[in-house]
Prior knowledge:
Order of helices and strands: EHHEHEHEHEHEEEHHEEHEHHEH
Number of helices: 12
Mean pLDDT: 95
Number of strands: 12
Bound molecules: pyridoxal-5'-phosphate
Largest sheet: 7 strands, mixed
Radius of gyration: 21 Å
Low-confidence stretches: none
Structural class: alpha/beta
Strand content: 5-15%
Amino acid sequence: MIYLDYQATTPLAPEVAAAMQPWIEEKFANPHSPSRWGREADAAIEVARKQVIQAIGLDGGSLAFTGSATEAINWAIKGTVERATNGRNRIVTVETEHAAVLDTCDWLETRGYDIVRLPVGPDGLLSLDQVKAALDERVALVAVMLVNNEIGVIQPIGEIAALAHDVGALMLCDAVQGLGRVEIPDGPDLIAVSAHKIHGPKGIGALWIRRGSDPMPLIHGGGQEMGIRSGTLSPMLCVGFGAAAKLASERREEDHEHVEDLWITAGSSLMTDWIINGSMTQRYHGNLNVRWPGLDASRLIGEIRDVAFSLGSACASGSGRPSHVLRAIGLGDPEARSSVRIGFGRYTTTEEVIDAVNRIDAAARLQQGWAA
Ligand code: PLP
């Protein structure tokens, strides 16, 4: 099996598995209990917290561990509008956000909040003029992702945060696909991240919170995380997230160069007849979202069973619904249904990319009635 679905999740790094091992097999203490064992677990969690903050790379904030980035995003959005004062009841977001943002906003809309969903251009990028025009003193929060999970385009987060601050709003950045891959610009007040996208374990995310921007709690209880997020932390998962973040920081250049090499191999040399979805310049190169007019992408995925790649996104796959992101960049249903997402990264070899892309390309040609 060749794994080319790095946006859905990433393989656990061996270094991460090794760091987690003692916390799975031997060390079971509650990190919030005052025993020596508990203090040891607590200390390990604090090391992990620093490692994740370091990978985010911004000063002036703290980090709360959560059960997922989905939880971090729900918390950031609901907890910010709940805290908002002076009649601010509007959220400005983007049509191409992840479901964690869009569905939370949909739900808040049913509770009387005002949601503005900005469109993007055919390149998948926001226009800063449009962002500016949507902002005034009614806005409590602006929520924009850094790297899009479906098409890989990179939004101008620093500039958007500055515009949000000009009207006194806070800015949430979903940096799940950006962490460890591209620089997270300074500016956001709240940043959601997830361990399993950076070769860490599933079931843990985090919310970075700029000093003074604490959201109201979403999960009530013991207040273990800074008094504003409750639930016993899992040392095993926190240590795994920390080890993955440390590795991502240490290997940043190496991982970047590797992905650039794979992009050149996959994109320019092999898939000459395919069209790339989204911006060619503002994009993360570990995501190759491409279409071939007339192709039945769903059938193609079924035909190449030993390569794991995806339709528009893991979430849209199987639902039968064309991706909301591809629709937002102006693709009709037939074009969206002819698109595939190929995602690679640290553990993908050049040989795997060549083999898989050749097979995808040949199967597409056969399907179209072209000679392979
Ligand atoms: N945001 C983006 C951009 C994602 O790609 C994902 C995962 O697919 C999430 C949020 C949700 O992350 P988690 O799986 O940690 O809930």
